[in-house]
Amino acid sequence: MKTPFFQKLSRYYLIFTACFGAFLLALAMLEKEGMPRLWIGYMFMFATIVLYAAIGVISRTSNVAEYYVAGRRVPSLFNGMATAADWISAASFISLAGGLYLHGFDGLAYIMGWTGGYCLVALLIGPYLRKFGQYTIPDFFAARYGGNFEGRAVRLMAVSATIIISFTYVVAQIYAVGLIASRFTGVDFSVGIFLGLASILVCSFLGGMRAITWTQVAQYIIILVAFLMPAMWLAVKHGGNPVPQVAYGKLLPQLSAREAQLAHDEKEAEVREVFMQRAEDFGVRLHGLPFSWDSGRQEAQHNLDVVKQRNGSLLEIRAAERALADYPKSVEEAAAVWSAQRNANLARARAPVKHAEPFPGASREQSDQKRNNFLALVFCLMVGTAALPHILMRSYTTPSVRETRVSVFWTLFFILLVYLTIPALAVLVKYDIYSSLVGSDFSHLPTWVSYWANVDKASPLLSISDINGDGIVQLAEIMIEGDVLVLATPEIAGLPYVVSGLVAAGGLAAALSTADGLLLAISNALSHDVYYKIVDPSASTQKRVTISKLLLLAVAFIAAYAASTKPGDILSLVGAAFSLAASTLFPALVAGVFWRRANHQGAMAAMVAGFFTCIYYMLHANPVLGGSIDGQWFGIAANSAGVFGVPVGLATLVAVSLLTPRPDARAMSLVRHIRTPEQ
Known about the structure:
- Helices cover 75% and strands 1% of the residues.
- It contains 27 helices and 2 strands.
């Protein structure tokens, strides 16, 4: 039955959708009349930030239930849209299609894992948390696993896990905000991050979950339109059909044929040979350390002296000075830099991955290893999804348990509208680049190449260099980061610039919606679970909400600073967050619902064991973190560390729970209560 509240919300968001369509039409007309591209970018950024700020101001509140759980009155349809926006993060919107473009079949692990995770939420956790009916995930841990002292200890451990997981995830979102803002406003990357931070804070700071929920519904509408429009345009352009999923099925055989043609192209082999030679040169330098470092430093200094002595041009002197300044300052730095450059050249020397080939490998052993990594990643993403604090918090916002179950259905529906388009978009863009850009003349490169090559000159997101000097673009000469692909799709497809602004607004909405939820999860854990439940239980509701707002502000600035250091690509950061969530929280969450014998000693031991197993493996097997590929167990990549952390956590929980006293009657009663169906 549709309530008056539901009908009112439907009317508001239909009006919003109509106004958004009129705004797009107006900008398209202004572009046709000659409005500069930069102004269109400003208009999109300004309009969306003002929209989110307006919703934040209108939804401001100091009521605890409204601030923490939106008053528990969000209808299932709108909670599904808000959760989908919370879920479709920068990794999904910006990076996932890029991952499929670069890695082909292997990239489907993200879609399968993340979608399957919501099935686990619906079956194992979501409805039971709603029946429990408190505010945060640490609330559940404290009530299920503790009395007085034990409850505080379990609560603090759950708070620590929530903060670490959510902080890792939110850094990736803010990094994406900086990438989008710098591209479409022309500001420096670091400045773009703090501009995006202002957008995040105007939503979450004033109204908490209430403001975030109604903002996320609006953001989902923007995300959906922004993602589908360029995909449908490319589908019509290359497949003659506006349904991307149908067009991509038609294009896939053509793409495979083009891949086979490029694999046997002599010019492509020539370019790859150049990269192989460069990799071997770096290998020689590494083998000759420390003498190669010293001789290279002397050579760089000698080149600078020679240029100055013969009165070289200012450009030559600056280039020689830059070469000396960029030279590694120590033997250790040289080893790290040269190793990374050797690996990068080796990667570009390899033949491109066939898009539709599952688990490609030179041997059966390599193919099996890729398959194992695929399955491990799917497992980590599924289990991690079912343990993410900012997603599980949304279980508390619906009016009833039944509404929570229906809400998960709507969440999956709204996510799949985007997720089923992502593989199609990757193929459509890949076909466009392989058929249009590859083989073109360097003197007539499309304008989008120079735009994206200049976004971040220190760490280029895109570069095309004439490696073999023939003046023709070879596939091996193109270096494109996965994070660029979706944002550049409208320009690659030849769409009006207003669509580029729309896609940027969609990416910004995806990053902001997830960042809002994550920051609120962190601040609520600190204000509610630490300050109110442990430090000052007599604090007034006004004081509790004020503390949460101040903590949210502090955490947001710390996360923005961390993102400005560019700690890694978006997908790798997100993968780490999911493995940590799976290893640390999932065993104790599920056992808390389905195994009455689980006690607080077992839960605490499981969280510690799972967390440290996951962290140890990441440090041990990830070269970026100081580990080594040789340190991998069974060949499993570091971003799938949860495949070891979850079993260790579960085994520890079972063993410790069985070796220690049974939970008290209060914990048993809570389990019976949350598992009793509603009448």
